[in-house]
Amino acid sequence: MSAVPHSTSPLLPLRPVGPTRVPGPWALGALLALTAAGTLFALGYGAYRIPPLDALGIVTAQLGLHSGTFDAQQAAILQSIRAPRVLLALLTGAGLGLSGALMQALFRNPLADPGLIGVSTGAALAAALVIVLGASVLPGASRVLGEWTLPLAAFVGALAFTALVYRIGAARGALSLPMVLLAGIALNALAMAGVGLLSYLATDEQLRNLTFWTFGSLSGATWSSVGAVTPLVLIALALGLRLARPLNALALGETQAGHLGVDVVRIKRVAIVLTALAVGSLVALTGVIGFVGLVAPHAVRLACGPDHRTVLPGAALLGALLVVLADAAARTWVAPAELPIGVLTAGLGAPFFLALLLRRRLQGL
Amino acid sequence: MITRRHFGAAALVACAGPLRAEPAPMRVVSAGGAFTEIVFRLDAQALLVGTDTTSIFPAAAAALPQVGYLRQLSAEGVLSLKPTLLLTASETGPPTVLQQLRAAGVQIVQGDGRHSIEALRGNVRLLGDALQRAERGHALDAELQRDWAATQAAITRGTPAPRVLFVLSHAATQVHVAGTDTAGDAMIRYAGGVNVMSAASGWPPRPSRWPPRAGGDRHHPASCRRYRRGGVAVAPGLALIMGQGATSSVPDALRRCWVSATPAAGGARAGGGLGHGHRMSAQGRCQAQFPECAAWRVNW
Question: What predicted TM-score, i.e. pTM, was given to this entire model?
């Protein structure tokens, strides 16, 4: 545990920077408005044409504001296919964005992302086990749990791997972050080796299913599945946002944070548990959706500075916006087929991120 | 408020819907190459409004709107084609999407995915009925039955039955062999052969010791003759090597090994361009490539 504050980190420049830094509340307001607009757009936009006014009419009728009659097919698509999917996109983006911000703050490293603590690869390994060996090893479980077998196994895998990483990093009442980091890297490699081995053993069909799972997709969104993850993600969001002040203190270094009265061990533990909860449940349902957790907090920090009171909610909102838009693109670009969303989050996120970096650079930073 | 003014407009537009309630023509999406081919054979292609990526034959099937890979359909994407009927294979999915489609009122017909002439004929009748082409379906079924009987009669059953290995190669580094429950296995069995890979099911990747050490092949072809997998000694008299596209993708070492080393009984043949071999119209090409086996005129 270093007592020296990481003042040289590009993540947390301690000197006041740039003339164009956006005040936090403004940025959050703008992001909130953009996310709301993006959500409405995503609800009205899809392979099945539903004119925006009809969509609005259907939604308001569902809410009981008036009693219009509508095309049953359009209403059914909006209500049982598109709406849960948009909600899952919002939750996924918010969960990944916030978790990314928590991890970057915790490790005080701009390269940290939610996958660092083994949560994504743990889920991937469990998913691969179910896809490849599920039918032969656990036929009973598959029969009882049905379509929930895969998400449940992935969730358990995510939590188990994170717990393992945590156990290795924790010793004598302290939590050594470098140990957590290294354990995470090692266990990620181990899990990927397992996935690789299972891919080798897999039949053609299993391999194809596995590939699609690792691309990520929100097409599994139904009201029941979204209902199952919503409480977990909302709890993680609510508790995660309350870590802003302690994480600001932690940015000065663990010792300094301790002197400021922050229970450092507890903060670290809470951040890891919340990330495992949110990302684990989301990954279990959607597969791996990369880049959001990395880029969302970064972008907010570049625009607004390192204050976590802005970065945490900002990352959640920007993540939600990014995933909602990426999913709208995934649903429509190759309609009536669908693109894997993992491809799009990186495809849309990376250029956006590069543009931000270049802009900062042009301003002499 | 803009919204209030527009409620009326939205309601009007929506009300217009039920008024055009004349009997809707059948709109079919086929998610499975085998079923798409049958639809065409039933002359029902005019009903098709979409196909999946496995529907590559005939070419007209691939020109229709593509709903993607059959295991990863998109509920809204499929619904955007406003289908009344979805033809599915056993592997079509994901299950959630099928549930959503069923809930949206799309009739879903699932064909028999097994590799057998009975399954094929069952599918022909099933699709004939589902597409309201029952008569054509029964005629095609009878035609298949006739062809099938003729094919079976034309097979000269060798004693002992030839031991056959079915090799599928998409790229030089990827080799799969046909185990049980595959189209390749069915071809071999129907042709009166014995599938040497019957210890495995599906399409296992190439066995670990195959091809054998590169240096040894030419001088010791005998090393190719036997290898073990699952305790079964594999010594095919005939190797059918299928490449999707070109035969040239079959690894040279493999070709050398099999062509030079198989027992004199059959002699290995390398052929290609069969697709997965379950194409109704492929019989002519197939026979041209394997003149000695009329048996490959398997109609599926």
Answer: 0.79
